[in-house]
Amino acid sequence: MMDKSEQERLAALDAMTDWDLGPEPVPPGPSLPVPRGGAGAAVDGGALVVLSAAVSEEHSRDVLHSVLLAQLVANKKYERHTEAENWYRSYGETLERVGWVIKEHEGLARHKPRKFPYRLGPVILKALTRISDAPSVERVTAALKVLTALPDGDPAAKLFEKESHVERAGNFQVAAVDEMDGLATVRLGRFRLRIENEATEIGRLLRMEFQAGAEVFRGSQILHLNDEVYRPLRDGVAAKLGARADALIVPVSGLIQ
Asked: What local confidence, expressed as pLDDT, does residue 199 receive?
């Protein structure tokens, strides 16, 4: 009789053949290296992934690839920005299929600001502070500061803006990644937003001053990577992503070492 890990591996392999990720994009310029371990951050589709120095090169790639895969699978099934609840369900299912184990989950709840206007930075940090240690929050704070300050033409800034929102709706994630004793852990902030005022233009999302009437929802998860499940899928996930990994994973300048 197969053990649970073997059953999960075979189920993921079966599912992988059916995943439609859409056409492979052409990278806009020279390929940028996927992080090789060490502290840093990268925009990964519509997510900001922040890595501690303890995360190995192999696990850095595992996180970036599986997070991107989950987004692309969900993107093909649901409209990312207007069907966010269904989108997140698909996103989570894909992560679990490739070996991510949800250890803690807080569903999306509406953010209730104490004053207006407000920015998303404190909302993101509030979601992550509850599930993260101080060094992780400090790394995310630094990464958000750098991403917010990048010029409009920077590749990481352009990618994050393109993938995280459209018109007056948005859906993005921020992940703090750490590793201890060989176990990769992701502390994930999940966010969606909607602005009713048709005259409002988002522009740069992290610089946006949100007014009353904007709806911002936040949730969080803690996930551990089951290497026994993911290891035999690693090459298949990379092959499935293909050129998408080059086009949709971009280091944040000044943070990737």
From this structure: 83
Bond from prior residue into 117 cis (ω within 30 degrees of 0): yes
Which ranges of the chain have pLDDT less than 50? 2, 30-32, 256-257
Give residue 27's pLDDT: 58
CA 203 to CA 200: how far, in whole Å?
9
Q: How far apart are CA 74 and CA 70, in angstroms?
A: 6
Q: Return contacts of 30-34, CB within 8 angstroms, 24+ apart.
A: 31/246, 32/155, 32/246, 32/249, 32/250, 32/251, 33/251, 33/256, 34/60, 34/61, 34/64, 34/245, 34/249
The pair of three-digit structure tokens given for residue 75, joined into one six-digit string: 């993107």
DSSP state of 153: T
pTM of the entire predicted model: 0.91
Q: Residue 249's closest CA among 92, 121, 237?
A: 237
Q: What is the pLDDT of residues 169-187, one digit of tens each?
A: 999 999 999 999 999 999 9
What residues are paired with 43 via a beta bridge?
A: 48, 250
